[in-house]
Structures are given as structure tokens and as C-alpha cells.
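Input (structure):
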């Protein structure tokens, strides 16, 4: 069985990290697996990019800008990412078919990586892991409160459009025509919430939809002595530390930085300090007196493990999440997580057992959750339960076996239909 994983990058972004971890997990199972990307940042020989010529390498760097040109016509658009995926001239499908895989496993394929219509040219059965909402919408990656994906997009609020036959409707119809011509397509929702969204969508509900999580290597992500970890980061030994972090942590509205600041303003404990990764110190500092440590971008697992181990609580206040790896990573390291009780976070956190689930977008309850974790007399029990949850349900070998079972069932069904 030969598997080809396809993602825009191998290490840049959450979807890249998740797909690359699956790639490594399958390799450990001695699976014949390769990863194909648009932007290769690692030196892993089992990962290759599809841009070979000088021209292809140059054009790949501006594909995302070119693909986004139709969106720029909507002056009232929001900052939420919207991908038309119209720009062709990519040889990615040619490379996919030339590899002759038994299964093509798509992940995040935007940033101008592939034209929607080109998906039907893939010859092998397709498995597609959803890392956001894009596959079943008219182009938005985060649908927020809009449920037009259940019927037919148009008059898109994210584009600021009041026209039914707008860009979102046209992208939606292109997907509909394309998906109808892909006979063997299996959709993976990383969380039960995303699985249900896909099943409710008019674009994907006729295809097989299953729930499978991202894998995490719990032999790498494991607790480190807190004193040692704090000394490594030069963090105070006598303070309670609250951690928050993500790519573009303070600028991406979906990550909930604004809501977290509101919650931290409600904390009265002078012994608490705030730690942020994924962002440098901003010009406009948050309106609280709490001492804040800005650690910038972190990309390697060793740094993340030591940081998770150094703090007392991780806060993931995202407004929407598929299955945030920051939560599973933190809990694997024995650090409880506080978040809002919605979307993919419900699959990870068990209220007051492995962390705290605050009422959705209730910043006062978010503050209560942070205080509860910092003050609970059962902190050690909470930490152990969190790690046990990740080891039992998200451990890389366990998850890899589930993916192998899915691949085998698809191939068996495919042979039966031939």
C-alpha cells in the first residue's frame, strides 16, 4: 500500500505540522508513504515539492497572492481568509498521478496550490482531512455563524456581499460540479464537530465522512520537571504562569487574544504572570499590569515541550477550532487547558477533569476557569488525567493504526467495485 500525503507545506502552520506528524507516524509503521508539498522547509528526503523548474519555483511563491485577486474586488470584505482556488498552471496533479499512489491523502491545499477543477483529475481514491471549513463552503476557511454551506452559498457576509451570485456562489458551484465527479472521496473531520459540519453540508454529505484525530507523539510531548523548564526559559520560580500561544497569536482574531485579555483583566492575583508564544512584544501593550513574557515564534518540539512544562495552565480561547494541537500538546506535557466549550475543543477537554470548559465567549467564566485551575487542590490529579486522556486517545501509533484501517477499507471497497 502506497500513500501520498499532500499539503501546502511540510512544517509551516498547524495543518502542516499535523500532516507531517501523520507522515512520520506512518513511516514508523513501515508504510510506503511520501509527502508532496508546495513549500518545503524541512530537509526530510521523504518530503518533496512539486516545483522543479526555475519558473515553477518562482510562481509558487506568489501563487497565494494571485489566487486571492478575485477577493480584492470586494471592498467590504472581512479579514477572514477566503480562497477561490482558481489559479491553475500547477503540475501538482501530474506529480500526484506520476507517483502512482494507492491512496492520495489531501490536507490543506490552498494558497494557490491547486485549482478546484483539477481535483477530479486525480486517479487514485482520495482521502481529505479537513483542517478548517474551506472544503464545504464557498471559499471561506472560517464560517463563523453563517450556515449557508448547508444549502448554497451566496450573498457572502465575509465578502461583505449582498449579491446572491457572488464569488462565494461561483466557488460553491465549481466545487459542486467537481465533487460530483469524484467517485471515491472520503472526508475526515478531525473533531466530531467538524465531522458533523461536513455531514450537514450540501457539498460533502453524499460522500463518506468519518472522524479521525491528529496524532501526537507522547514520547516526545511528555512532562518535564517544572523547575528545570522554568530555568531554561528564565521564568520566575515563585509565580503562577498562564500560557497562550499560536501562529499570529495576538493578531489572528480567531485565536481569541482579545477575549483572553478581557479575562485576564478580571484576575486579581498578583502572583500571576502571562506568557505568550507566537508573537513578539507589540507596540500597543495589553491594558493590564500583569507582567508579560513574549517569547516570539516557536517551531521545534523541544522548545514547546519545555514551555508547556514550565507553566501552570494553557489557555486556548479560540473562537473556532478544528482540533487544536496546542491543547493536546499541553495536556500531553501535564499542563491543564482552559478554553471555551465549543467546536473541536470539546473532543479534548473534559470539564474539571482534564481542564476547564468556559461558557462560549463568556470571558468572565474564562477568567473563573483560569483561577480554578491555578487554585485547585487537585492540580496533580488534573495534570495526570489530562496526559492520560491524550495517551489513550491521540497517541501517534494508535492514531496511525486507525488511518491504516481506513486506507485498507477504502482499497478493499475500491477493488470490489472494479
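Output (sequence):
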Amino acid at each position: 500500500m502506497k500513500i501520498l500525503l499532500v499539503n501546502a507545506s511540510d512544517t509551516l502552520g498547524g495543518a502542516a505540522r499535523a500532516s507531517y506528524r501523520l507522515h512520520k507516524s506512518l513511516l514508523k509503521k513501515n508504510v510506503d508513504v511520501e509527502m508532496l508539498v508546495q513549500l518545503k522547509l524541512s530537509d526530510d528526503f521523504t518530503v518533496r515539492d512539486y516545483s522543479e523548474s526555475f519558473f515553477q519555483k518562482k510562481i509558487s511563491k506568489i501563487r497565494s497572492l494571485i489566487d486571492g485577486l478575485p477577493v480584492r474586488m470586494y471592498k467590504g470584505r472581512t479579514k477572514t481568509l477566503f480562497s477561490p482556488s482558481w489559479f491553475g498552471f500547477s503540475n501538482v496533479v501530474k506529480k500526484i498521478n506520476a507517483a502512482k499512489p494507492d491512496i492520495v491523502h489531501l490536507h490543506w491545499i490552498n494558497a494557490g496550490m491547486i485549482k478546484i477543477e483539477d481535483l477530479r483529475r486525480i486517479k487514485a481514491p482520495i482521502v481529505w482531512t479537513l483542517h478548517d471549513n474551506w472544503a464545504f463552503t464557498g471559499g471561506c476557511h472560517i464560517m463563523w455563524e453563517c450556515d449557508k454551506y448547508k444549502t448554497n452559498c451566496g450573498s457572502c457576509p465575509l465578502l461583505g456581499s449582498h449579491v446572491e451570485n457572488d464569488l462565494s456562489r461561483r466557488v460553491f458551484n465549481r466545487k459542486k460540479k467537481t465533487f460530483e465527479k469524484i467517485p471515491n472521496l472520503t472526508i475526515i473531520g478531525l473533531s466530531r464537530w467538524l465531522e458533523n459540519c461536513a455531514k450537514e453540508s450540501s457539498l460533502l454529505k453524499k460522500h463518506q465522512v468519518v472522524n479521525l484525530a491528529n496524532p501526537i507523539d507522547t514520547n516526545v510531548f511528555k512532562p518535564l520537571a517544572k523547575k528545570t523548564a522554568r530555568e531554561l526559559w528564565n521564568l520566575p520560580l515563585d509565580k503562577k504562569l498562564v500560557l497562550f500561544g499560536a501562529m499570529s497569536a495576538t493578531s489572528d482574531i480567531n485565536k481569541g487574544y482579545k477575549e483572553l485579555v478581557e479575562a485576564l483583566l478580571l484576575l486579581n492575583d498578583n502572583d500571576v504572570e502571562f506568557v505568550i508564544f507566537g508573537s513578539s512584544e507589540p507596540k500597543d501593550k495589553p491594558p493590564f499590569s500583569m507582567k508579560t513574557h513574549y517569547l516570539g515564534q516557536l517551531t521545534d518540539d523541544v522548545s514547546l515541550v519545555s514551555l508547556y512544562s514550565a507553566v501552570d495552565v494553557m489557555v486556548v480561547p479560540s473562537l473556532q477550532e478544528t482540533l487544536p494541537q496546542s491543547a493536546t500538546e499541553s495536556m500531553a506535557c501535564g499542563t491543564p487547558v482552559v478554553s471555551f466549550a465549543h467546536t473541536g475543543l470539546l473532543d479534548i477537554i473534559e470539564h474539571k477533569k482534564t481542564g476547564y470548559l468556559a461558557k462560549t465567549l463568556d470571558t468572565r467564566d474564562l477568567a473563573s476557569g483560569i483561577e480554578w485551575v491555578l487554585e485547585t487542590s487537585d492540580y496533580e490529579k488534573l495534570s495526570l488525567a489530562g496526559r492520560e486522556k491524550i495517551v489513550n486517545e491521540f497517541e501517534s501509533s494508535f492514531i496511525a493504526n486507525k488511518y491504516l484501517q481506513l486506507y485498507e477499507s477504502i482499497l478493499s471497497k475500491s477493488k470490489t467495485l472494479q
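Notes: The chain has two domains: 2-215+396-417, 226-393. The first helix runs from residue 14 to 28.
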